[in-house]
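Our collaborator T.R. sent over the components below with a one-line note: 'Predict the complex.' Nothing else. No constraints on interfaces, no templates requested, no preferences about which chain binds where. So this is a plain run: every listed entity goes in together, and whatever single assembly comes back becomes the starting point for the next discussion.
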Amino acid sequence: MKKLTYFPGCSAHGTSEEFDKTVKMVMSALDVEMEELPDWNCCGATSAHTMSETLANALPLRNLILAEKLDNNIMAIPCASCYQRLKVTKVHMDDNPELAHKINSTVVEEGIYEGKVAVKSMLQYCYEDIGTEAIKSKVTKSLTGMKLACYYGCLLTRPKAITQFDSPEYPVSMDQIVEALGAKATEFDYKTECCGASFSISNTEVVIRLSGQILEMAKESGAQAIVVACPLCQSNLDMRQPDIEKHTGKKYDLPVFYFTQLMALAFGMPKEEMMFGKHIVPVDGALANIGKIDPVPEKIKKTKKAVEAESEVE
Amino acid sequence: MIKRYGRNYELRMMAEFNIRTRNLFKDMNLAPKAILKGKIPLSVKPVKSAKAIKRMYKLAEKLEKQHS
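Returned assembly:
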């Protein structure tokens, strides 16, 4: 049995409760024992690093030190913003022992940081430490017939020097996971474009515009739904979708799933436990495609990135 | 919010934002649905070491003043 430390983050107890719940369900099915970090605190995202460099490092550092008190080598994090803050701090502390000592000795009183726990996003952990073959082996209800646009957002793979995971521009890890579940990942050029993130509250128009472009491109890719691994991306694309539709005058009807909800579904777990009722955009239409086979082979449509790559070769 | 609870309290943060920006009815079309669906919890579970977090804020401020 694999073991890991689990850092849920603030949104796991509210906005993304369904992510938290399905992470626990699929990890249990995959024989991974998760130990929640005791007395974890907010990572500071997204305001701390714009207000105080010391706090931006100190808040995640306390969590990193608490994680070292447990007997696990990896701490996995479902929220992309929390992952980013903890990973950035870890890299800062590991690369700059003088800074680490200064903040550790003057601000964080929980213990001495040693840098012995790896920090990974939940997506990264599923892809690297579990693997698509092991995921495939647990599938009892294939998602054949579903066409999904995998959306990674800004933080899971960038900056490459910090995340050290997948491609920063055109990642494929989530695409391969959903294909292991039997679904088809569409060619989707906007997989790492920004959704507007925390501007959702302070400058909603920005989110309407940016998330609107993502919905537009996902629809154009032929997707019936979007898959994410970030609570803020899910919230912007799902909760703001009615406002975006009002703004553009178009109907997208694209539910936004967490990748672990789809894993739990494909693993044959009870649908009612995946908390689909929390979604603003109803999911039933997209889920009704499971088991359907295209009568006519789909016309292959080249994406902008594929066309650019071809013209470079010429 | 984080200084007080050690964790984010989304409902209070949004309410305070609306009050401070004098835009009381912002997102009022969305809020009831989000609350009913449990997307925005009505309460927060603070960290046990809330005092330690508050102290971190003070110490961080002190450290930054020393180096400014």
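Summary for T.R.: The CA atoms of residues 29 and 35 of chain B lie 11 Å apart.
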